[in-house]
Amino acid sequence: MIDPAKISGRLLQHPALQGVVVKSLIRNGTRQQVAEIQHDDDTAYLKCYLGTYAAQRHEAACARLRQAADIMSVENQVVRPLLELADCHTLIMSPAPGLPMRDACVTADTQRRLAIVRRAGEWLACLITAREQRPFFAWKWHQKLVEFASMFQSDETVDATLVGQHLVHMEQVTRRLHVRKVCHGVSHGDFHSENIFVAEDGDRLILTGIDMETAEPIPVVKDLARMLVWLQIDAEPGSDRVSGINRPLFNSLCAPHGPVAAADRLALHFHIGEMLLEFYLRRGARVPEIRRKMSLAIEHWMSSCAAILRDCQGVD
Ligand SMILES: Nc1ncnc2c1ncn2[C@@H]1O[C@H](COP(=O)(O)OP(=O)(O)OP(=O)(O)O)[C@@H](O)[C@H]1O
Ligand SMILES: [Mg+2]
User: Fold this and answer.
1) Which of 22, 26, 31, 188 to mutate to test the pocket of ligand 1 (most atoms within 8 A of CB)?
2) SS3 category, 81
3) Residue 166: CB within 6 Å of ligand 1?
4) Can you tell me which atom of ligand 1 is nearest the CA of 29?
5) 154 and 192 in contact (C-beta within 8 Å)?
6) 99-312 domain in CATH 1.10.10.10?
7) Torsion sign, CA atoms 191, 209, 248, 178
8) Per-domain residue ranges for the chain?
9) Does residue 208 contact residue 197 with C-beta atoms inside 8 Å?
10) Are 38 and 20 in contact (CB under 8 A)?
11) Which of 23, 28, 131, 280 has the highest local Cβ count within 10 Å?
């Protein structure tokens, strides 16, 4: 556990934080500190934004949580901001009830897991109130991915042939996709299974989102792709897959978003490919099991490229 004393003493001397007790420090990064605290006799969470854009990120996170709270329904929730301290870029928020979706999925049986995944798809669909078609700047993402991959060039544990082949396929998809119109919406921005909490209320599953900053429209498929790749990390490897992701997971998350247009399907494939490689390289460097799982998913992703490209030909 991170030493709670690492939270800045100056922050805790803030007049609005008198009496706050830090129970545990969950993140102690260069961009943010996150702590579970005791506030007004209740458990709450403190997030202190750090670094160059701390002020803007704090403001964006507070605004986004307030905005999302107005949109969400009974079963689809976001945490409530309790205190917004602009002068120290700190947000105190209510605790999300239940368990992180990742933990809830790991302990659930298959049927229950798919029900949770489907609810996560519904949660996202509920959050995105306005959708619009915007051009997808595939080369921009592609360039970033190539630069990212080049940082691992001297890592001998990386299968350079696999990465090289994957980037060739990514380039083919990029050529076909660039500036095609795809569905954009103000989404979560970091939609993954540790940023959504699941609580049971009788037969109902209440989902609560945390960790939101994005207020700009992004491709909706980017958030879907991120969640799918996170879910794939914990999934049993199977052969029935879609874009490298186990088909039941893929279908359960995407179903609440209705029929997917051809360009969106290709953009979803693109972002899944991007995130599979990111996970293979970065997280896989720390956890060999992730590398193994991601390389199987990448192999499948590559083998499904031709069919997806064919389906998208000339269709908008
Ligand atoms: N309001 C909350 N209720 C319950 N748990 C919370 C809350 N806020 C934060 N946490 C816990 O703290 C963890 C880190 O918080 P948060 O996701 O905001 O930080 P982060 O550094 O942006 O995380 P990451 O980059 O890993 O997504 C969460 O994964 C969650 O376990
Ligand atoms: Mg998070």
Assistant:
1) 26
2) strand
3) no
4) 21
5) no
6) no
7) negative
8) 4-93, 99-312
9) yes
10) yes
11) 280
Backbone angles phi, psi at 46, to 5 degrees: -110, 135
CA of 270 to the centre of ligand 2 (A): 23
Render each residue's pLDDT in the chain as its tens digit; 316 residues. Answer: 667 667 777 788 899 998 899 999 999 999 999 999 998 889 999 999 999 999 999 999 999 999 999 999 889 999 999 999 999 999 999 999 999 999 999 999 999 999 999 999 999 999 999 999 999 999 999 999 999 999 999 999 999 999 999 999 999 999 999 999 999 999 999 999 999 999 999 889 999 999 998 778 999 999 999 999 999 999 988 889 999 999 999 999 999 999 999 999 999 999 999 999 999 999 999 999 999 999 999 999 999 999 999 988 765 5
Sheet holding 131-135, edge to edge: 131-135, 181-185, 218-219
Query: 4-93: what CATH class?
Result: alpha beta
Answer yes or no: is the C-beta of 117 below 6 A from any ligand 1 atom: no
Q: How far is the CA of 161 from the centre of ligand 2 (A)?
A: 32
Ligand 1 atom closest to 26 (CA): 12
Q: Residue 78, SS3?
A: strand
Q: Is 130 exposed, middle or buried (0-12, 13-18, 19+ CB in 10 A)?
A: exposed
Q: Which residue has the tokens 């302990």?
A: 107
Q: Sheet containing 76-78: give its strands across.
A: 76-78, 204-209, 196-201, 99-100
In the chain, what is the greatest distance between 2 CA atoms, to the nearest angstrom? 63
Neighbours of 305 (CB within 10 A): 20
